[in-house]
UniProtKB/TrEMBL annotation:
All copies of domain Malate synthase TIM barrel, residue ranges: 179-429
Family: Belongs to the malate synthase family.
Catalyzed reactions: glyoxylate + acetyl-CoA + H2O = (S)-malate + CoA + H(+)
Gene Ontology molecular function, alphabetical: malate synthase activity
Organism superkingdom: Eukaryota
InterPro entries given in the database record: Malate_synth_C_sf (IPR044856), Malate_synth_sf (IPR011076), Malate_synthA (IPR006252), Malate_synthase_CS (IPR019830), Malate_synthase_TIM (IPR001465), MS_C (IPR048355), MS_N (IPR048356), MS_N_TIM-barrel_dom (IPR046363)
GO BP: glyoxylate cycle; tricarboxylic acid cycle
Malate synthase C-terminal domain boundaries: 436-557
Protein name, UniProt field: Malate synthase
Amino acid sequence: MVGFETFLEPSSTERKTGMAYDLPEGVDIRGKYDAEFAKILSRDALQFVADLQRELRNHIKYATECRKEAKMRYNNGTLPGFDPATKYIREREWVCAAVPPAVADRRVEITGPVERKMIINALNSGAKVFMADFEDALSPSWENLMRGQVNLRDAVNRTISFHDTARNRVYKLNDQTAKLFVRPRGWHLPESHIFIDGEPATGCLVDFGLYFFHNFKAFRRTQGEGFGPFFYLPKMEHSREAKIWNNVFERAERLAGIEKGSIRATVLIETLPAVFQMDEILYELRDHSVGLNCGRWDYIFSYVKTFQAHPDRLLPDRVLVGMTQHFMRSYSDLLIRTCHRRGVHAMGGMAAQIPIRDDPVANEAALELVRKDKLREVKAGHDGTWAAHPGLIPAIMEVFTNSMGNKVNQIHTVKREDAANLTEEDLLQRPRGVRSMDGLRLNTRVGIQYLAAWLTGTGSVPLYNLMEDAATAEISRVQNWQWLKYGVELDGDGLGVKVTRELFGRVVDEEMARIEKEVGQEKLKKGMYKEACKIFTRQCTTPILDDFLTLDAYNRIVIHHPKGSSSRL
């Protein structure tokens, strides 16, 4: 294992051998060689990642098997619920470690991929936090992932700049910037350009390990006020997965020689099973937690996936599944109560709207919807919320500030004890609403366009005045699959048509024609729309629902280079 002293100064082993990465024993890189990437993929950094992988691989495999077993139970009719074995954790009085002063105020957080210009604009946006994303907002190509690590290193060191040649403008950081959080990928995603002991590395350990190794020292000085780095953790389903993350953090802290509890993380509650594990997740991360977040788009996706074998739990049009649905409001209320009882932030959901510059009336109507949603959040007790675009930040900040006054959060003032009475039935209540042809068409059109962009390297995609990421494509896919599997009747537009493979085939053809009309024939030919259409259609019509759209599509963007051109000879 590398010692903490190797974190402080580059060692002689970081010298490169010709045009190849200098690799520790058992590590193989199959991504393209790049001299800038080689600075990130130093021998000692890779050794750190490899040691994490070796120590935790069996725990990760066990957690993965537990997910499969839970899925089988749900498919056989069992409903998710609170675990009687951990009742003592839920009922006992305990709190997480005190929130670091650097991140006490999180009223508005902006999110986006780890692209250079995006990072600068987001850090300069006026938001309190920027979540830089290796997950749903990023297409995980080798270039995107490694370039993202370079960009984050430069951002932490405050040397980052970007020259926009088209506008002849240079972007640099302001003196005052948002606090930086980083979201690695979920446990389920591999990193197939890096092999450790003959198998693909775990994507999130690569994301975390490389970023932490190169940035912890500068981050604690420039951003964390003695704490950090800070993270967001996605796609958890059970507290055993939080325990693995806690082991990662403790090992990293020991090796770096920093105090236990320096690293802090917010967990996204974005799977249905996780809502019944919120206390347990916080308990496992109690020395490292700074709260939970309502990842509401993925939560809806997870609702369908969890109940894929339950024809009595069909969703209405996804645009109708908002926070006013009882099961969604219950989830938000219980999250607030749980977080505040344990002394940490309860973060609200995403506002995905994009300013509509050519239609002031439509823009104001969209902004008013955002204000109402954020007013609901702050009144409910959320301590902050998410925005996808800098243009939303002033309006959202105003809503939270007007409601909270001079308080930086509501952790100790809004306890939501009324939510203690929420039951499993509240959290699982069937959503109400109609299903329509327009809903089927929107799912299809958005799913194909998002996937086409993802396959060509873009994971955060503006579509119909909303900034979409992989969560929207996942909802679109699983809802189409659900409607097709159970032959639902489209009762929302008076047609009474049943969803069949034949109907879906016609919808796909018609929506592809509409996409061509909207984007133009030239872009359609140059893009990967036809490939995306094939993948999306197959995913919607497969007899057995795939767990993740991106796992299937990932194989299309993995490019292995000859061994001699990418790794040490």
